[in-house]
Design a protein that fits this description.
Layout: H1 2-24, H2 29-61, H3 63-70, H4 78-98, H5 100-117
Helix pairs in contact: 1-2, 2-3, 4-5
Amino acid sequence: MTFALVGRTVTNSVIAGRLAIAISQRSSLFVAARGGVIGNTLLLGGMAQRSIYTSESLRQTDPEIYYPLRAYNYDLLYFLVEPVLEPFIEALRVKKTKGQPEFNKILDIVEDELKKRR
């Protein structure tokens, strides 16, 4: 997660700096730095907004996952790992809606895939 955040920030700084230089036609370090600061501020604002919306969506769709995360304020970090955790959350939804037998089928499929990879 840290590397992803640092990568986004660095990439955003480089792109914003180049755009600022191209627009102003002055290749000063001050213009590049200012563009990077503005871009990173917008990036952080967008990430904060996404974390809030993702947290709220999790609260509405999966409260049994949201509330344990919320106890430690991890619900706001959930958006960083959401793509990785989505299959597990979907499996928990199956357990909630279709019951333990369907959930056990998913576990069997996962177990079979893990045995194939050994």
